[in-house]
Design goal:
With 406 residues, this protein is of the alpha/beta class. It folds into 2 domains: 150 residues, Aspartate Aminotransferase, domain 1 (Alpha-Beta Complex), CATH 3.90.1150.10; 229 residues, Type I PLP-dependent aspartate aminotransferase-like (Major domain) (Aspartate Aminotransferase, domain 2, 3-Layer(aba) Sandwich). 40% of the residues lie in helices and 18% in strands. The strands form 4 sheets. A 7-stranded mixed beta sheet has the order 4-12-11-10-7-5-6, sandwiched between helices. Helix 4 packs parallel to helix 12. The radius of gyration is 21 Å and the shape is globular.
Length: 406
C-alpha cells in the first residue's frame, strides 16, 4: 500500500533548503538509460551524468537488480562486523589495480580525507612530526571538508571558514619545475588529479606525472592520485593512472564507483595501510552492504574490454561533433579531456558564459555541466547509446546556434 505524497515544486527548495545550491528550474523525477523526465513529463537527454556519477545511466538493470537483491538481505551492520559484498568488492578492486588494501567510505571528500590522513600518519610514524607538508595543484578540487577544501587549490571554496590547515602548498598544474621547487624533506605527499575536473577538464602531461613520481621517490613522499572524477572507466581505462602508466601510492575513487549510490574507496599498498591501526580512522556507513553490492555490479559491467573500448569510441564521436560545432559557431577554442570526461574551452567572445550555455541547452531538453565559468563539461553515461549521442548533440547545436545568434 503506497502513501500519497504531498506535491512539491521547485519553489519549495527556496523555502526549505539551505541556499548553498542553485538548482535548475525543473525537477527530474525519473530516468532510464540516458533519458530523464521531469515533473511535467518533458524528456531530456542526460550528458551530465550526475556530475560523472551515473556511469551506467539511470535505472540500469544490473544495478537495480543488485540493489533490490541486497535490500532484501542486509542493509547495515556497521564496521563492528564485516560483510560479504564489501569483501567481494575489495577483492575486485585489488585484482584490477596496483592496490593491496582498500578502505571504504561514502564520498570523494571522505576518501581524500582518509588519503591525506594516511599520508601524514605514515610520515609521522616513519620520519617524525616535522614531515607533514602536502603539495597540491592550483585549481584542483579534492572535496568540501575543512581538510580537503584546504588541500584543493581554489581559495574561493576555502576562504571564510577560520584559520586554514597549515602545511599545504599549491603549485601550478603541469609545471614540473614549480613542483620541484616546492618539494622538500618535509613533504609527506604530492596530491594530483590525473585530469583536473572542476578546474576545467585539464589532463596532466605524462612527463609531469612521471616527474611527480620521481620527486616523491627521491623525497620519501607519497604520490596520491585523486581519481574521484576520472576513475571507474571514465577515461577509457578503469583508472586514469593506467592510461599514463604512472602508479600512485594512494588512489581515491568515488562518484562512478556506485553508479549513483553513495560509496567511495581509498586504495593503497599493504606497507602503507598498516599505519592505520585499529582506532586511527573510521566511518559509520563506510563499506555498508547496500553500497558495496551496487558497486560490485558497477565494476562487473564496466571492467570489460567491450565497455572500455566503447568509451573510447564514444569519445571520438563526441569530440568530432563538438569540434565541428565549436568551429562553425566560434564558441570553443579547444575540446579536451579523455574518454567520456570532455571539456569545451569557451572562446574569448564567450568567456565566463558557461552558465549561459547550460541554460540554453536546458531549453533544448539537454542536461550538460560546466567546469568553472569558461569550460562546458560533458560527463555522460559510459554506455550512452550512439543514437542518444547524435540526438543530444543535435540539441546542443541548436542551443549553441540560438546563443551565438542572439
Amino acid at each position: 500500500m503506497s502513501v500519497e505524497q504531498a506535491p512539491v515544486q521547485r519553489a519549495d527548495f527556496d523555502q526549505v533548503m539551505v541556499p548553498n545550491y542553485a538548482p535548475a528550474a525543473f525537477i527530474p523525477v525519473r530516468g532510464e538509460g540516458s533519458r530523464v523526465w521531469d515533473q511535467a513529463g518533458r524528456e531530456l537527454i542526460d550528458f551530465a551524468g550526475g556530475i560523472a556519477v551515473n556511469v551506467l545511466g539511470h535505472a540500469h538493470p544490473a544495478l537495480v537488480g543488485a540493489l533490490t537483491e541486497q535490500a532484501n538481505k542486509l542493509w547495515h551492520v556497521s564496521n563492528v562486523f564485516t560483510n560479504e559484498p564489501a569483501l567481494r568488492l575489495a577483492h575486485k578492486l585489488i585484482d584490477a589495480t596496483f592496490a593491496e588494501r582498500v578502505f571504504f567510505c561514502n564520498s570523494g571528500a571522505e576518501a581524500n580525507e582518509a588519503a591525506f590522513k594516511l599520508a601524514r600518519r605514515v610520515a609521522f610514524d616513519r620520519f617524525g612530526s616535522e614531515k607533514y607538508e602536502i603539495i597540491a595543484a592550483l585549481n584542483s578540487f579534492h572535496g568540501r571538508t575543512l581538510f580537503t577544501v584546504n588541500v584543493g587549490g581554489q581559495s574561493k571554496y576555502s576562504d571564510g571558514f577560520g584559520p586554514k590547515i597549515t602545511g599545504i602548498t599549491h603549485v601550478p598544474f603541469n609545471d614540473l619545475e614549480a613542483l620541484k621547487a616546492a618539494v622538500s624533506d618535509k613533504t609527506c605527499a604530492v596530491v594530483l588529479e590525473p585530469i583536473q575536473g572542476e578546474g576545467g577538464v585539464l589532463p596532466a602531461e605524462l612527463a609531469y606525472l612521471q616527474g611527480a613520481r620521481d620527486l616523491c621517490d627521491a623525497n620519501n613522499a607519497l604520490l596520491v592520485f585523486d581519481e574521484v572524477q576520472t576513475g571507474m572507466g571514465r577515461s577509457g581505462h578503469l583508472f586514469a593512472y593506467q592510461h599514463y602508466g604512472v602508479v600512485p601510492d594512494i588512489l581515491t575513487s568515488a562518484k562512478s564507483l556506485g553508479g549513483g549510490f553513495p560509496i567511495a574507496a581509498m586504495l593503497t599498498r599493504e606497507d602503507l595501510a598498516k599505519h592505520l591501526v585499529v582506532g586511527t580512522h573510521g566511518t559509520t556507513y563506510g563499506g555498508n552492504p547496500l553500497a558495496c553490492a551496487v558497486a560490485e555490479a558497477v565494476i562487473d559491467v564496466i571492467n570489460t574490454p567491450e565497455v572500455l573500448a566503447g568509451v573510447n569510441a564514444k569519445h571520438d564521436l563526441f569530440k568530432a561533433r563538438l569540434e565541428q560545432i565549436g568551429k562553425q559557431y566560434g564558441i570553443f577554442t579547444q575540446v579536451r579531456g579523455m574518454g567520456l570526461l570532455l571539456g569545451c574551452v569557451l572562446s574569448d567572445a564567450f568567456k565566463g558564459k558557461a552558465k549561459d550555455v547550460f541554460n540554453a541547452a536546458e531549453k533544448e531538453n539537454l542536461m550538460i555541466l560546466q567546469a568553472g565559468p569558461d569550460v562546458v563539461r560533458f560527463a555522460p553515461s559510459l554506455v550512452v547509446e550512439d543514437a542518444d549521442i547524435t540526438e543530444g548533440l543535435d540539441r546542443f547545436e541548436r542551443a549553441v546556434k540560438t546563443l551565438t545568434q542572439a
